[in-house]
Automatic annotation (TrEMBL):
Protein name per Swiss-Prot or TrEMBL: Ankyrin repeat protein
ANK repeats: 68-100, 101-133, 161-193, 197-226
Organism: Akanthomyces muscarius
Gene3D superfamilies for this protein: Ankyrin repeat-containing domain (1.25.40.20)
Coiled coil: none
Cross-referenced PROSITE patterns: ANK_REP_REGION, ANK_REPEAT
Keywords of the record: ANK repeat, Repeat
Amino acid sequence: MTLEAIVGFLQDGSKFLTWVNLLELDEWEEEFGMAIASPLSFACLNGLEATARRLILDGADINAPGAYHGSPLRGAALRGEEAIVQLLLDQGADVNAQSDSHGSALLAASKNGHRTVVQLLLTHGADVNSMNSCYGSALAAAIDQGDNATAQLLLDHGAEASDIALYNASWSGNEAMVRLLLEHGADVNSTVDPVGSVLQAAVKKGHETIIQLLQEHGAEMNMGDAAHSRRQLQRQ
């Protein structure tokens, strides 16, 4: 299919909407009360750089929100489409636009291991400490995926060593990241509602070296934690 044909299809409102609904490519507008993602968002999400350029040239809203994947920038960041991310930023895309359910472009790139896109977004002023109700911060999302290199990059750009970031590192047994977060001032006695404390995360998963590390940094173990830790040791 030629570029002209693709652009023509995406710009035909009735055909585009029918295609989206038939293939369930996005959440339904009537059910969720949110706008279906724009043609530009779908082009960016699927790596169609030439199509994205043409749609922008034809006046597409560069910050148009979408129900599930959010703005065009967030869709491109989610898929690691560095060239399209650069294009959108050059055209003035809002680097800190938020998806209602999945957060910012920075969080999307961090959660999916796209470190070069993370660097690009940070260079263009992305809020490194922007929070989302589902995933927390970009740092917490990177740690949840075990991506220490991206986590280090975010810390180098001022990311806060948040409670949920330390919890994720403790839960997953990521000793190197636990140490790094503690060095960056993470609260060793922090609690993440409703799941519990950082120490409880390590105890529940049986990560003895992390339990010891947290205690060495002042973590307080209650009687329930101690009993659970003993049971974990007995099973090993």
